[in-house]
Amino acid sequence: QVQLVESGGALVHDGGSLRLSCEGSGITADLYVMAWYRQVPGKERDLLASLTVHNDFHYADFVKGRFTISRGPAQNTVYLQMNSLTSNDTGVYYCFAIRFGEEIWGQGTQVTVSP
């Protein structure tokens, strides 16, 4: 079964850090464009960061310098390192993979940043 499973979401205080993990099964993540999105209630999912198969990066302006997307040593893992978190970063974080029109979403992991 092809799926993505996120982990690492937690409650942290302002200024804190978290590392989210996305583990794929049934896929080789190195062959997919991988991305992280965030969604808050009542709003659409926002693209935070993406990583191509050639390891080209893209970051949303509001996370540049704070978030880093990377691939793990295993071919099926992608990370999102998040630093200097603020309450505006609270939301459900989703891992996403796309390749030749095949799209896969994870189930999401909750990140809550408290003052």
Describe the protein in words:
The chain has 115 residues and is mostly beta strands. Helix content is 0%, strand content 54%. Strands 2, 4, 5, 6, 9, 10 and 11 form a 7-stranded mixed β-sheet that branches. A hairpin with a 2-residue loop joins strand 9 and strand 10. The chain is globular and about 40 Å long. The chain starts with a strand and ends with a strand. The model has no long low-confidence stretch (mean pLDDT 95).
Structural classification: mainly beta
Task: Using the alpha-carbon principal axes, give the shape.
Answer: globular
Mean pLDDT: 95
In total, the number of strands is 11
Give the SSE string.
EEEEEEEEEEE
- Uncertain segments are none
| Tally of helical runs | 0
Query: Quick one: biggest sheet?
Result: 7 strands, mixed
Percent strand: over 45%
Helix content: under 10%
Cα radius of gyration in angstroms? 13 Å
What distance lies between the first and last C-alpha atoms, to the nearest angstrom? 40 Å
Please give a quick description of this structure:
By secondary structure, the chain is mostly beta strands. The chain has strands at residues 3-7, 11-13, 18-25, 33-39, 46-51, 57-59, 67-71, 77-82, 91-99, 102-105, 109-114.
Structural descriptors:
single chain; 115 residues; seven-stranded mixed beta sheet; four-stranded antiparallel beta sheet; 54% strand
Topology:
Blueprint: E1 3-7, E2 11-13, E3 18-25, E4 33-39, E5 46-51, E6 57-59, E7 67-71, E8 77-82, E9 91-99, E10 102-105, E11 109-114
Parallel strand pairs: 2-11
Antiparallel strand pairs: 1-3, 3-8, 4-5, 4-9, 5-6, 7-8, 9-10, 9-11
